[in-house]
Specification:
The protein contains 6 helices and 7 strands, in the order E-H-E-H-E-H-E-H-H-H-E-E-E. Strand 3, helix 3 (81-89) and strand 4 form a beta-alpha-beta unit. With 196 residues, it is α/β, with parallel strands linked by helices. It has one domain (15-69, 76-98, 133-193): Pyruvate kinase, C-terminal domain (Pyruvate Kinase, Chain: A, domain 1, 3-Layer(aba) Sandwich), CATH 3.40.1380. The relative contact order is 0.21. It has a 7-stranded mixed β-sheet, sandwiched between helices.
């Protein structure tokens, strides 16, 4: 029997106070494993800025996954255009895409006429409640990035998500496209909050 020993970090509570630590843990694991691409969820750009600063000069590909235009308000992108410009100038890739674990399904479940949860939302809720909200976010970022062609499905990536704002969950994932969701594998939990 063979095994690998690696560090796992646990935060006492979820939230944005863990963001800088998550960036350092993601960078550390990327260097340990040789993984070249790190994905991080960022709604406004603040989390992306923290990661960009810590990743500066690392040679790693930093991919920021943001909410799709219209997620909160019709026609509006929540990400700061000024921040997006700075990040892109620094070589950070920013992608948006429809939430793979809700998207159209959410419109149906919120409908007064149709109502009820969808199977897709059950998958999302299972990830949120059994492990961490940030795990659901990280998995969704990987699906979006793969569907957008920003990453391949043949190499592991590090994915980072959070609870509401900031980052508090870091994991290593073998990607898949949304249509091949069950080929996706969460291979390592690097950091997560113990309480949710």
């Amino acid at each position: 029997m063979t095994f690998t020993s690696k560090k796992i970090y646990y935060f006492d509570t979820p939230g944005p106070a863990n963001t800088a630590d998550c960036a350092r843990f993601a960078l550390e694991r990327a260097r340990e494993t040789g993984i070249r691409s790190v994905l991080v969820a960022s709604t406004s750009g603040r989390t992306a800025e923290v990661f960009a600063e810590i990743f500066k000069g690392s040679g790693l590909e930093l991919i920021v996954v943001s909410h799709v235009v219209g997620f909160t308000r019709p026609g509006e992108w929540e990400f700061s255009a000024e921040t997006a410009g700075r990040l892109r100038n620094d070589g950070v890739k920013i992608i948006t895409g429809t939430h793979a674990l809700s998207g159209l399904e959410r419109a149906i479940s919120r409908s007064a006429k149709l109502g009820g949860s969808s199977r897709t939302e059950v998958v999302a809720e299972t990830l949120r409640r059994t492990v961490a909200i940030g795990l659901k976010v990280a998995v969704e970022c990987v699906l979006i990035a793969a569907d957008q062609g920003a990453i391949g499905v043949d190499k592991e990536v590090i994915a980072v998500g959070g609870t509401a704002t900031g980052a508090d969950t870091v994991c290593v994932i073998r990607p898949a496209h949304t249509a091949g969701f069950f080929d996706l594998q969460v291979r390592e939990i690097v950091a997560m909050p113990r309480n949710r």
